[in-house]
Amino acid sequence: MAHLTLIIASLLGLFGTASLALCQQxxxxxxxxxxxxxxxxxxxxxxxxxxxxxxxxxxxxxxxxGFAALLWALIFAxxxxxxxxxxxxxxxxxxxxxxxxxxxxxxxxxxx
Length: 112
Prior knowledge:
Helices cover 82% and strands 0% of the residues. The chain is mainly alpha-helical and 112 residues long.
């Protein structure tokens, strides 16, 4: 069970950092080949922050506040590195997340 919560916290951290990266116009454009609307931008940014906060909550629930702060900082750093590498070498990998945000915001953006 402890390993499962660590995996969940890591995935939430990864989704959070990827969302924060996708709320930037140039990263969104490299993934979706379309412009990012301001409504979508705020949705993506806020959901990224919620993912990161949920990741912290899972860490605190798993290990207590003392070790959770260290664990969450490590998860955040590794997730940021993975997001940066994915955006540098294979940005279309994040298309599933960007498509979900497009569907949630109801935007009709053209994608190639």
